[in-house]
């Protein structure tokens, strides 16, 4: 149980640090003239992440879940997702955020993992929300949160791509198909 709480504390500390970076980047973006899109769905993403931690703790503590024998597979996937997340953050620099900020006239980022596909940060999030619960045997949390997350990301990606296409050279850089 000590490992579970230590790991959970590490992930929560990481999220707080990322929110701090996101706030700093949001201030910079708005100072440059950026506008926010997708405010309507953002609260649901926040709620999902809060419910994720609550469900994970509930399933592990109340249902007595234990790490499976194959725990190294989700652990390795989690490490890869972390690497991908920070590669995304580094590649986007001050444009990285948990919210959708669009700077009119900005050039679309096509470096780092964005050379290979459009939304690598969301792949990292999908992987984390699946692998963290599986690491501790919380398969119900992994399944439920993943389904809701995929739906919310489908909404978010649609809003994000529409906002980027309208205000930047996103369509020219990535093509018009979504």
TrEMBL record:
Protein's name according to its UniProt entry: Isoprenylcysteine carboxyl methyltransferase
> Which keywords has UniProt assigned to this entry?
Membrane, Methyltransferase, Transferase, Transmembrane, Transmembrane helix
Lineage of the native species?
A: Bacteria, Bacillati, Bacillota, Clostridia, Eubacteriales
Under Pfam families, the record lists:
ICMT
Where are its TM segments located? Answer: 41-63, 122-152
Asked if the Swiss-Prot or TrEMBL record annotates the protein with the keyword NAD, the reply is: no
Q: Which GO terms describe its cellular component?
A: membrane
* Molecular function as annotated in GO: protein C-terminal S-isoprenylcysteine carboxyl O-methyltransferase activity
Q: What is its main location?
A: membrane
**In which compartments does the protein localize?**
Membrane
Q: How does it sit in the membrane?
A: Multi-pass membrane protein
Biological processes, Gene Ontology terms: methylation
């Amino acid at each position: 149980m000590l490992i579970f709480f230590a790991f959970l504390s590490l992930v929560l500390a990481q999220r707080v640090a990322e929110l701090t970076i996101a706030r700093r980047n949001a201030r910079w973006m708005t100072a440059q003239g950026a506008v926010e899109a997708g405010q309507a769905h953002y609260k649901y993403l926040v709620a999902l992440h809060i419910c994720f931690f609550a469900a994970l703790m509930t399933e592990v503590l109340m249902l007595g879940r234990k790490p499976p024998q194959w725990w190294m597979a989700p652990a390795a996937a989690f490490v890869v997702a972390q690497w991908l997340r920070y590669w995304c953050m580094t590649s986007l620099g001050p444009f990285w955020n948990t919210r959708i900020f669009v700077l009119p006239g900005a050039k679309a980022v096509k470096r780092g993992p964005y050379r290979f596909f459009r939304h690598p940060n969301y792949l990292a999030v999908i992987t984390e929300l699946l692998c963290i619960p599986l690491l501790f045997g919380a398969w119900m949390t992994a399944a439920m949160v993943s389904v809701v997350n995929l739906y919310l990301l489908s909404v978010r990606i649609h809003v994000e791509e529409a906002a980027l296409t309208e205000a930047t050279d996103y369509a020219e850089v990535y093509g018009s198909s979504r």
